[in-house]
Amino acid sequence: MSAEQRAGQNSLQRRSAARTAVVWDALQEVLEDSGGPSGASVVDIGGGTGGFAVRVAELGHRVTVIDPSPDALAILARRAEESGVAERVTGRQGDLASLPDLVRDLGPDSEVDVVLCHGVLEIVDDPAAALGALAAVLRPGGTLSLLVSQRHAAVVARAMAGHFQQARALLDDSHGAHGAGGTTRRFTAEEITTVLDEAGFEPRAMHAVRVFVDLVPSSLVDLEPGAASALVELEQAVASRPEYLALGTQIHAVAVRR
Questions:
Q1: CA of 203: how far to CAs of 27, 36, 145, in Å?
Q2: pLDDT 10s per residue in the chain (258 long)?
Q3: Using CA atoms, how far apart are residues 197 and 201, in angstroms rounded to an integer?
Q4: What is the reported pTM?
Q5: Strand partners of residue 65
Q6: Do 171 and 178 touch, CB atoms closer than 8 A?
Q7: Which parts of 44-150 fold into alpha helices (H)?
Q8: What three-state secondary structure class fits 34?
Q9: What is the rounded CA–CA span in Å between residue 41 and residue 63?
Q10: Which partner from 50, 55, 126, 147 sits 20 to 30 angstroms from 84, CA to CA?
Q11: Kind of pairing, strands 138-149 and 250-257?
């Protein structure tokens, strides 16, 4: 790998750390309170290549990743093997429709303690039905980690890029924009709270995610000494402040099944 390639990789890693720090902090707290001595049973729906799953397994928990892409699951298997957690990570090809059957395959007495649903609710036909399916496989008192795109920040981003008509169209679009890739929804904090309640979840926390990282130029983060760690600290500092929920690119919700 050339010096230029290494620099590019390091830049991506710094950006990734800033984008995921808030969610990872909250998820670690959830996992500390879940499961017994053998760790929690975690299902990661749409978990793809295992960005979170492998890290969760490294903490001693058992993770089942359900994803429709065989290529992503192959990468997941390699990452789990390289990290020494292959025995605690299971990949299954499927989606929300096949979720109940795949969870039953874990064993007749298996209980799911934690479900990760990151970046999935935006692309399903019926978000309420999707959350209902997740509630059905989660044990009572189990925890949902839900990460969704936030609509207000998308409006600002489009406007700052000069796409004023797109910004206006997104402003009140609670049903999602239809395009070549299907439907992409973005949610407000109020909408997420409502749909979680209707699906049988009690929201416990809401976090603003990626408030600044998508706005700060990469060159500043890469070249200014200490800027990357300071950016992470800033994201963590504002994550739990409700006034920043409307500014985050994403919202992370922690909810408990009733």
A1: 14, 23, 10
A2: 555 545 445 556 677 888 999 999 999 999 998 877 889 999 999 999 999 999 999 999 999 999 999 999 999 999 999 999 999 999 999 999 999 999 888 876 678 999 999 999 999 999 999 999 999 999 999 999 999 999 999 999 999 999 999 999 888 876 765 444 455 899 999 999 999 999 999 999 999 999 999 988 888 888 888 898 999 999 999 999 999 999 999 999 999 999
A3: 5
A4: 0.92
A5: 44, 91
A6: no
A7: 53-58, 70-82, 99-104, 127-137
A8: coil
A9: 6
A10: 147
A11: antiparallel
Instruction: Tell me the residue type at 27.
Output: L
CA distances from 42 to 46, 58, 77, 117, 219 (A): 13, 13, 16, 11, 37
What 3-state class would DSSP assign to 178? strand
Q: For residues 139 and 123, what is the distance between their CA atoms, to the nearest angstrom?
A: 25
The structure tokens listed for 49 are 């290549």
